[in-house]
Specification:
heterodimer; A: 307 residues; alpha/beta; Rossmann fold; Alpha-Beta Plaits; 2 domains; 10 helices; 34% helix; B: 433 residues; two-stranded antiparallel sheet; 15 helices; 6 strands
Chain lengths: 307, 433
């Protein structure tokens, strides 16, 4: 069964259509990566899943039920921009968020003890949130999201701002929750995190779904059309070579999107410069994201035009 | 319902646990007590200086009498233990002799500038004549016109002594005049009624406390309880919105539940405050032998109007908080609301003076003013007609329901909005959505 089913949902704010005909199935007990540039409709889609916003048209089912207040208790949500009640203690925060999900303090206390112990927050239970470091406060907010044992977790940039140790700690918790059957929607701009953690990736761009599938599916869709080269001539010698569609200059190396036989490019390049490195490369999620979301030359001209 | 109570409890505890609330709840009676004590002390102690006044008495007969009166006044300013409780006036006779009066007045002015004198007066020669006219005025010269106690004393003393001289000149016995024109005391009483045994009961004396202090006290208590509790909603919502806590809350409860919980929490805060102060007031009334000030009927109305005021203004504050993205924006949007809040407080003295005037009746029926002004009218005797009270309740209930509904819609939309605050047309669009 799908944990989330979106069927042709649309949402418009004034004259701006934020989400257009998006359909999606998020399998249970999976980690589904939500990616997309800022302002592409990602947050609006998440808010509709959470029933904070209602779609203008289309249907949403979450955990087998029509999206609505009935399944709110089964969903945990960690927004990108974090905030906690600074004057509450850690225990009060966890009680409050747990009670809002329908749990009693008696049911919450063992969970609070277990998780705060697990994340080395036990000594801070009765400290006010304002006394915590940023990393600890972030862990408290993460705990507040999972303390009521949600069946669906929506995490928006859960690792941003954390040091590597805390990142690994929370990542392990996310993976453990998935193993226990929790479905996780992971919204992130960190493509490497999405590649490492997510079973499937959904990308939204300008309100439309542009990617949806496993990493293998997406790679198969985009194929090996990228060649990484290092030459003495640098990026300048690549422009204008036959078959070269785009060049991403990373300084010492250039990633070339190429249509045609790579051997032909190798020969053509060898005639104009000394080749130090030539590698056929599967495009990363980052490359694919940039390829989709980068403004076209036409858009750049429009943006730069005097207003 | 459980979620609403969870939110209400959190709101209540967030406010009540804060140092500001504890300090506020203790400070309010302390500040009131201190200000009263300060006024009493200031009145007694602030003006204990020696004031020397030069007197140019063109009548030639008033100065001696004034000096006697000044001695009597000065003796009254000294307590048995020798401590002075008021100013002492020293009169200095000035005889211009052959000098022009202007020269003398200039010289006295220079002495005032040199701090040798406090003031001088010039009494016209015709003041004691039976033919004196309104043109004959006592002229008081000073560098400190804001000090009014001395000129008032001079005016009273000169008028009294001059009147005695005028009566004597008219061959009328001044003591007889004094006796015949002595002012009559007026005692304000309530209405007579028959007691249980059929006898006519004595009319009760009307206490000033009951007619002035009670209505003012109740109105200010409502105002303080409302202003201590309701604006906290605004700052709490703005903070939740700025830190995106509101988004997490909306993933757990509906906007209506969130708003209801917050209103319930802040109503509980206001009720708690009122309870503390009312209990204190009852204790003081009993201690000071004024049990008549304790009126259960009024306390019932107080609770009703407090609830209405908290719901109405609390909803408005919630809506403002939800519509704004920072505290600065919310402050400017608060200003029109504050005018509505202060208007009844400003109008209250007028309502107390004439509770059944057309303006008082109309103002007490305006829903934003009803909780304050109808409460004031109910605390006065006779209370307003029942139809006016019921009409005010219906109007306030309808207005409160409308405000809560409109605020709820602004709250629902505004909580997720960021950036510049909406203008009036946008707010109206949110309400219509």
């Amino acid at each position: 069964m799908s944990a989330i089913e979106l069927r042709a949902i649309n949402k418009t704010f004034g004259t701006h259509q934020a989400v257009r005909d998006v359909s999606l199935d998020v399998p249970e007990a999976s980690i589904y990566g939500f990616i997309g540039p800022n302002g592409s409709g990602k947050t609006t889609t998440i808010r509709m899943i959470l029933n904070i916003l209602v779609p203008d048209s289309g249907a949403i089912r979450v955990l087998g039920a029509p999206s609505g207040s009935a399944i709110r208790d089964a969903i945990g949500y960690l927004p990108e921009e974090r905030g906690l009640y600074k004057r509450m203690t850690v225990r009060q925060v966890l009680h409050y968020y747990g009670q809002l999900k329908g749990c009693t303090t008696a049911a919450l206390d063992p969970e609070i003890a277990r998780w705060t112990d697990h994340l080395q927050l036990g000594a801070w239970l009765d400290a006010r949130v304002q006394a915590l470091s940023k990393g600890m406060a972030q862990k408290v907010q993460f705990l507040a999201t999972i303390i009521a044992r949600p069946r669906l977790l929506v995490l928006d940039e859960p690792f941003s701002g954390l040091d590597p140790v805390n990142t690994d700690e929370l990542r392990d918790v996310v993976l453990a929750l998935r193993r226990d059957g929790t479905t996780i929607v992971l919204s992130t701009h960190d493509m490497s995190t999405a590649e490492r953690l997510c079973d499937r990736i959904f990308m939204i761009f300008r309100g439309r779904k542009v990617l949806d599938g496993s990493l293998a599916d997406i790679h198969a869709q985009y194929g090996q059309d990228t060649i990484r080269v290092r030459t003495t001539g640098g990026a300048a010698v690549l422009a204008g070579l036959p078959g070269v569609e785009a060049v991403v200059d990373a300084g010492n190396v250039q990633d070339v999107r190429y249509q045609g036989d790579p051997q032909a490019l190798l020969h053509a390049l060898g005639r104009v410069t000394a080749i130090q490195h030539f590698e056929l490369k599967t495009p990363s999620l980052h490359d694919i994201f940039v390829r989709i979301a980068r403004p076209t030359a036409e858009e750049l001209r429009t943006d730069e035009a005097p207003r | 319902m459980t979620r609403i109570l969870v939110i209400a409890r959190a709101e209540l505890l967030a406010i009540v646990r804060g140092k500001a609330f504890i300090i506020g709840i203790l400070m309010m009676p302390l500040l009131v007590g201190l200000s009263i004590a300060f006024q009493v002390v200031a009145e007694r102690r602030a003006d204990v200086a020696d004031r020397t006044v030069a007197v140019i008495d063109h009548t030639g007969v008033l100065f001696d009498a004034m000096a006697v009166d000044a001695d009597a006044h000065n003796r009254a300013q000294v307590r048995d233990d020798g401590r002075r409780t008021g100013p002492v006036y020293h009169l200095e006779r000035i005889d211009p002799g052959a000098r022009p009066v202007d020269e003398v007045a200039l010289a006295l002015s220079e002495r005032i500038r040199a701090r040798d004198l406090f003031a001088f007066v010039e009494i016209p020669p015709t003041l004691v004549d039976t033919t004196r006219t309104d043109e004959d005025q006592v002229r008081y010269y000073t560098e400190t016109p804001s000090y009014t106690a001395l000129p008032q004393w001079i005016r009273t003393t000169v008028e009294r002594e001059a009147a005695v001289r005028r009566f004597e000149a008219a061959a009328v016995d001044p003591t007889l005049v004094e006796r015949l024109s002595r002012s009559t005391a007026l005692t304000t009483l309530g209405l007579l009624s028959r007691d249980a045994e059929g006898r006519i009961a004595e009319a009760p004396r009307v206490s000033a406390l009951q007619t002035i202090v009670l209505p003012f006290g109740l109105m200010y208590l409502l105002f303080i309880a409302l202003m201590t509790a309701a604006p906290q909603l605004l700052t709490a919502v703005v903070e939740e919105k700025m830190s995106r806590i509101s988004e997490v809350l909306l993933a757990s409860v509906s906007p209506a539940q969130l708003m209801a919980g917050k209103l319930a929490g802040v109503s509980a805060v206001a009720a708690l405050l009122a309870l503390v102060y009312v209990a204190g007031g009852i204790y003081l009334a009993l201690q000071s032998g004024q049990p008549g000030l304790i009126q259960v009927r009024l306390l019932g109305w107080f609770v009703v109007f407090l609830l209405a005021a908290v719901l109405m203004f609390g909803s408005i504050f919630l809506a403002i908080g939800a519509a704004c993205s920072d505290v600065k924006d919310s402050q400017s949007m608060m200003q029109p609301v504050m005018i509505f809040l202060l208007l009844p407080v400003i109008a209250a003295p007028m309502v107390i003076r004439a509770p059944d005037s057309l303006l008082s009746v109309v103002l007490s029926l305006v829903p934003t003013a009803t909780p304050f002004l109808m409460l004031v009218r109910l605390a006065l005797t006779p209370p307003p007609p029942l139809w006016q009270v019921l009409l005010s309740l219906v109007l306030t209930a309808l207005a409160t329901a409308g405000v809560v509904l409109a605020a709820g819609r602004i709250f629902r939309v505004g909580l997720l909005m960021q950036g510049k605050p909406p203008n009036l047309p946008e707010l109206l669009r949110w309400i219509r959505q």
